[in-house]
Every structure is written in structure tokens, then in C-alpha cells.
Design a protein that fits this description.
Elements lengths: L4 E5 L4 H12 L5 E4 L7 H6 L8 E4 L2 E4 L1 H11 L11 H22 L1 H4 L4 H21 L12 H6 L6 H8 L3 H4 L1 H11 L2 H4 L5 H14 L3
Parallel strand pairs: 1-2
Antiparallel strand pairs: 1-3, 3-4
This protein binds glutathione.
């Protein structure tokens, strides 16, 4: 390992993107190793034996798994620069609540738009997804970033899914800018940050990947 930080990575993964953004925000050098999910490396299986998923951050040969936990670990270890979570315990708990909310709602509901055939369950997932975005938009309010004036862990958790907005629109036959205008503005604001623009996927590439998943599932 050239640096003390090695990321078991996947370019198209929104979860790995969170870790890349946090590392960039902190100005940390790291080695990225792209995984092939059809042929997972022995290192991935050894470092994340429970879930066998990317991302895994290996710090001084100690693995940390689960993207939200990794982002919080990065913030705690490199706390001298660009804080990602508030120092006040109550505000910290509040930010963690929203991180958890995003984890529970956005991907689990969103991927039903391409993993399920047209059915009631898909319709209800779409409804829950849009309700979740509206809840997040209300939490954002008129602030530039979630809960604060500076880019933070809640923004990092959600922003990789901004690249999925195009797919949600196409598959859900909806307009994100009409449904959640402030959230779209927030996404554009975040995209102006280099840490974000260089880490997240291209929306068209995401849509093509989603269409391929649908084709492979025969949907
Ligand atoms: N909850 C995990 C989700 C990670 C995840 O779903 N990773 C996917 C790639 S986007 C993966 O490794 N999939 C391979 C598998 O599940 O076997 C996190 O936040 O890190």
C-alpha cells in the first residue's frame, strides 16, 4: 500500500462516491482499487467478510465498512480540517438521524423502480421515494446545505443520488425540478464542489446502467 489509506472502490457506486467525497474534502491521499463485483478480490472478501460489499476503507491495514460509518470515521480521525459533523452532541445526533433516513429510504425505494416489474409495489415505492425527497427538501429549508451553511456528512450521504435523479424521472415519469425544486438547486450547488463533481457518476451513465439491469432482469 503506497499510502496508509486504501479504498476498495467501485467507480459507479453511490456508496463508494460518499467515501471519495469525504476523503477529498479532508484533502487526504489514498489509493483506490477498483473491484469487479462479478469476481470479488480476495482482499475484499477478507476485509468485509460479513457483507462482501464495496466500499471498504483500509486504514493502516484495519478495515472499515459501510459508507456512512466510513464517512463518520474519516471525520473523527481527520478532525482538524473541514468538519463533516457538528461538534454539539445534539446537532450531531440530528445530522446522524438524517444520514440514517437517507440510507433507509432513497436507495431501497429508488432501486425498486428498476428491479421490479410495473406493479403495485413499484408504485408504492415510487410514492415513498418522492415523499422522502419532499421530507428531505423540507429539512433543507432555505439553507444552502443540510442543517448548516457548510457542506457536511448529510450532503455527502445524499449527493451521489443526485446522479440518479435523471433515472428516477425517466422510470417514474416525473419531473424532479417540479416536485422538489429546492432539492435540485441544492444538488446543483453541491456539484460545483470539485470533491463532488469528480466523485459522482454521470447521470446518463447511471441511466444506461439501470436500463441494463432492467434488460438483464427481463423487465
Ligand atoms: N450499505 C452499504 C451498501 C454498499 C453496496 O450496496 N455496495 C454494492 C455496490 S454499489 C456492492 O458491493 N454490491 C455487491 C454485493 O452486494 O454483492 C454501504 O453503505 O456501504
Amino acid at each position: 500500500m503506497a499510502s496508509e489509506l486504501l479504498l476498495l472502490d467501485l467507480n459507479v457506486s453511490p456508496f463508494a462516491a460518499r467515501v471519495r467525497i469525504a476523503l477529498e474534502e479532508k484533502g487526504l491521499e489514498y489509493e483506490s482499487r477498483e473491484e469487479d463485483l462479478d469476481n470479488k478480490s480476495p482482499l475484499l472478501l477478507e476485509m468485509n467478510p460479513v457483507y462482501k460489499q464495496v466500499p471498504v476503507l483500509i486504514h493502516k491495514w484495519k478495515p472499515i465498512s459501510e459508507s456512512s460509518i466510513i464517512v463518520q470515521y474519516i471525520d473523527e480521525v481527520w478532525n482538524h480540517k473541514s468538519p463533516l459533523l457538528p461538534s454539539d452532541p445534539y446537532e450531531r445526533a440530528h445530522a446522524r438521524f438524517w444520514v440514517d433516513y437517507i440510507d433507509k429510504k432513497i436507495y431501497p425505494c429508488g432501486n425498486k423502480l428498476w428491479n421490479l416489474p410495473k406493479c403495485e409495489a413499484q408504485e408504492s415505492a415510487k410514492k415513498e421515494l418522492m415523499e422522502s425527497f419532499k421530507t428531505l427538501e423540507a429539512e433543507l429549508g432555505d439553507k444552502p446545505y443540510f442543517g448548516s451553511n457548510s457542506f457536511n456528512a448529510v450532503d455527502i450521504t445524499l449527493i451521489p443520488f443526485y446522479s440518479f435523479f435523471h433515472s428516477f424521472e425517466k422510470l417514474g415519469n416525473l419531473s424532479m425540478v417540479k416536485e422538489c425544486p429546492k432539492l435540485v438547486e441544492w444538488g446543483e450547488r453541491c456539484m460545483h464542489k470539485e470533491s463532488v463533481s469528480k466523485s459522482v457518476s454521470d447521470p446518463i451513465a447511471v441511466y444506461e446502467a439501470v436500463l441494463e439491469i432492467k434488460r438483464n432482469l427481463g423487465l
